[in-house]
Amino acid sequence: MKKSEVHLTQLASAAGCGAKIGPKVLAQVVGKLPKFTDPMLLVGPETSDDAAVYKINDELAMIHTVDFFPPVVDDPYMYGQIAAANALSDVYAMGGVPKLALNVVAFPNCLGPEVLEQILRGGADKVMEAGAVLAGGHTINDKEPKYGLCVTGYVHPDKMWKNYGAEEGDILILTKPLGCGILNTAIKAEMASQEEIERVQKIMAKLNKYAAEIASKYTIHSCTDVTGFSLAGHSLEMAKGSRKTLVIQSEKLPIIEGVEEYAQMGLIPEGAYRNRDFAGDEVRSEIKELWMEDLVFDPQTSGGLLLAVPAEEADALAEELAGMDIFGGVIGYVTELQDKAVVFAFDIHPRYAEKTLPVRLQGLDADKMYRVKEINLMPGANSSLSGNGEVFSGEFLMNVGLNLFTTQQLNSRVIEVVAE
């Protein structure tokens, strides 16, 4: 079967991490199972963390995880890459390094062996990029293709990250933009353009290795990867485990280009509604637009890391992360426990509330027009102000300047603003 003839997503009932059993159902089932105790088990199922961690000795702990899902794209090789990156991410989210991986495969007889080979090759290349070893696996026949990895990694017991431990005053950083679940739904409906397909594939296939390596140089109070349970669901787990409230500043959410249009069309994956049901009344949303509210419950496939970082280190970490080809941004902060565990708000972090506009944007007349000679934005900044020599109103420039300043776009600078 030729590569161009393969339509893997048409064989899948749900795409990628959107196929996960809902967190509400899982909680009901897992809660009835026997509880295992072992003094060497550092992280088990109790906190819904990204992986299990077992202490080997005072210098070494083993991270163990498994993750697989049905096709999220049609291309077999890219499917293998994305599924492997998603599985490896659990180890990075614990602050560890993956060392050993095994394939987990379900494959239909209607597809030829060359398709399976491409899936496995994609996974193998991603494991190799991670610096781990692929040492076999297990396969079964199934009408719906499924692929993923069982991964073992290592971490120092005193240096592992957990999805709890966030402290009041921490800044929240997300390392990838949101919306891949919505875009994948558009892909499955054959509505996405080739450019949009390639864009979201690049994001999903990106290893969280690079963000984790940068973050490891800083103090990380809490970390999780944002995947099938959505930004809202994974934020809720972090908030409840930390006994704090996470305030997500919705206007700062990094969004993949094209997502808004499809979300407004109603192309929302089923998993988003399960995630919304799980969050229940523990999440408060001040979001005014329905499509953006759907976005925060959108199940992500191979999403980014959500990091809780001390405020005094957040600027430097965000600036360094922004040097990557893919980056999300600063999205919120942590407060003492409020009436809700997670709040999606439109506000300015108190740390920046008393700040003034950047010097070059002070003293503008809101009613006058100004020509901007050069503007540089940090990668990942969401702003329509990207021109060189374009004309804008003073009111617009002052508003954008404040936005750039409060979102910590440290590399952003207006070189020259001249009145028309």
Care to describe what's here?
The protein has 420 residues and is of the alpha+beta class. Helices cover 31% and strands 24% of the residues. The protein has twelve helices and 16 strands. The strands form three sheets. The chain has a seven-stranded mixed sheet with strand order 8-11-7-12-9-13-10, sandwiched between helices. Strands 1-2-3-6-4-5 form a six-stranded mixed sheet, with helices on one face. A hairpin with an 8-residue loop joins β1 (41-43) and β2. α2 runs parallel beside α3, α4 packs across α5 (194-205) and α7 packs parallel to α9 (270-279). The chain starts with 22 loop residues before the first helix and ends with a strand.
Keywords, please?
seven-stranded mixed β-sheet, 420 residues, alpha+beta, globular
Sum this structure up briefly.
By secondary structure, the protein is an alpha+beta fold. It has helices at residues 23-30, 76-93, 113-130, 180-188, 194-205, 209-215, 230-242, 259-264, 270-279, 290-296, 311-321, 394-406; strands spanning 41-43, 52-57, 60-69, 97-107, 133-141, 146-155, 171-174, 222-225, 244-249, 283-285, 305-309, 329-336, 342-345, 369-376, 390-393, 413-419. The protein has a seven-stranded mixed beta sheet, with helices on both faces. Strands 1-2-3-6-4-5 form a six-stranded mixed beta sheet, with helices on one face. It has a three-stranded antiparallel beta sheet with strand order 15-14-16.
